[in-house]
Amino acid sequence: MLKPVFYSVFFLLLSFPIFGMGSLKIEGSVFKKSVYTCVIRTFAEDYQSRLWVGTFGAGLWVKDGKGWRKFGKSPSALPDERISKIVVHKNELFIATAGGGICSLNLSDLSWKQIKIHTDLSNDEKTLNVRHFHALGFLGERQMLLGAVGEGLFYFNGEKWSHFTDAGDLPNNWVNDVMIASNGAWVATFGGIAFFSNG
Question: Which of 39, 97, 113, 155 could form a disulfide with 80 if both were Cys (CB 3.0 to 4.6 A apart)?
């Protein structure tokens, strides 16, 4: 079994003006969100050249030869309209949400599947109720990384899930993004970056 290895790098906070942030405004030294109905957070193109757009508050949208179509919140389909990340992997669109967990959409028949995270803690398999994700990526055919908001990093090796936190593996439990590399993945957190090695 491969054991993931983490290398952490911490950055100093740099102060510089940020312009053109759209739905953000500065009040004193704090960034605050103004009222919005739709912020586009992520997008991807599938093998049929359809454009998939994940919004933070207005669900999932697709543009094909017939125009735009929306996929809204539904218990058996999209669990939350606040989408953080979408990734096309093989014949599925994987969708990480900020409140409803993760699901996938079959790109051929448009059928939905909810993904549950099971970890083996003290030899007792436990289904975790982790629902807030910002990061999603694939290291191989079935190896998945999920970055949670305040709950660390989850890794699926094709058979079982593992959980990594700031208790030794990550600079911080708030994971914002993952970037796949040739021998693992870079993990961006609130407190710095780490390298996840799967080899």
Answer: 97
